[in-house]
């Protein structure tokens, strides 16, 4: 890899191979390469070097995010390779994860100095956005966490619950604000609250 070099002296732009020559070293593999410029002709005689970075393009990322589970703490670190670092955040930001909530993981991925991303970089299972600063934003929305599981529900004496609705897994599909109860005085609505 031999990037073009432009050298000026005042308003004059030096001409390669007439006013100066260039040689390159360490310019094949990703890393820090060096251009050595040697002046020729009537200009100041001398030699100087300029370092530049050769970056390797990252085609795809392999990033794992643990699916949110009720009661668990959100994942706050990403295992990254030598060629990038990553930071994760969650929306909504709740710790621990709560019932019946859709969570979205947002990950900012920054390439190492010797690597780079572009608009074609992919990450399995994520929406990928290439940012103008060379980073990537990865987004993944997870299915809603589990509904509340009813451990026990004991009505008062002489009360029959007529709207206690749950599925075969004993998990409520909807947590009501009240339950209809039947007692000696007829059917009434009893306000309830839930501790999850």
Describe this structure in words.
- The protein has a four-stranded antiparallel sheet with strand order 8-9-13-12, with no helix packed on it. Strands 3-4-5 form a three-stranded antiparallel sheet, with no helix packed on it. Strands 14-15-16 form a three-stranded antiparallel sheet, with no helix packed on it.
- A hairpin with a 2-residue loop joins strand 1 and strand 2.
- It is rod-shaped and about 80 Å long.
- The protein is an all-beta fold.
Features:
0% helix; 3-stranded antiparallel beta sheet; 4-stranded antiparallel beta sheet; 196 residues; rod-shaped; mainly beta
Number of E-state strands: 16
| Secondary structure tally, helices | 0
Given helix and strand content, the structural type is mainly beta
Q: What integer is the average pLDDT?
A: 82
Please report which band the strand proportion falls in: under 5%, 5-15%, 15-25%, 25-35%, 35-45% or over 45%. 35-45%
**Helix proportion range:** under 10%
**Cα distance spanning the termini:** 61 Å
Characterize the overall form. Answer: rod-shaped
- How do the SSEs run, as a string of H and E? EEEEEEEEEEEEEEEE
Strand order of the largest sheet: 8-9-13-12
Whole-angstrom Rg: 32 Å
């Amino acid at each position: 890899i031999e990037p073009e070099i432009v050298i000026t002296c005042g308003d004059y732009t030096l001409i390669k191979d007439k006013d100066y020559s260039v040689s390159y070293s360490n310019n094949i593999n990703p890393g820090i390469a060096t251009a050595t410029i040697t002046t020729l002709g009537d200009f100041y005689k001398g030699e100087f070097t300029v370092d530049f970075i050769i970056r390797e393009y990252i085609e795809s990322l392999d990033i794992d995010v643990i699916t949110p589970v009720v009661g668990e703490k959100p994942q706050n670190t990403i295992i990254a390779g030598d060629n990038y670092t990553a930071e994760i955040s969650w929306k909504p930001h709740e710790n621990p994860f709560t019932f019946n909530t859709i969570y979205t993981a947002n990950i900012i991925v920054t390439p190492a100095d010797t690597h780079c991303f572009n608009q074609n970089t992919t990450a399995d299972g994520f929406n990928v956005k290439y940012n103008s600063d060379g980073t990537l934003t990865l987004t993944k929305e997870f299915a809603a966490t589990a509904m509340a599981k009813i451990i026990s529900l004991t009505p008062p004496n002489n009360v029959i619950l007529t709207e206690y609705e749950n599925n075969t897994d004993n998990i409520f599909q909807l947590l009501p604000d009240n339950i209809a109860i039947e007692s000696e005085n007829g059917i009434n609505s009893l306000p309830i609250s839930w501790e999850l």
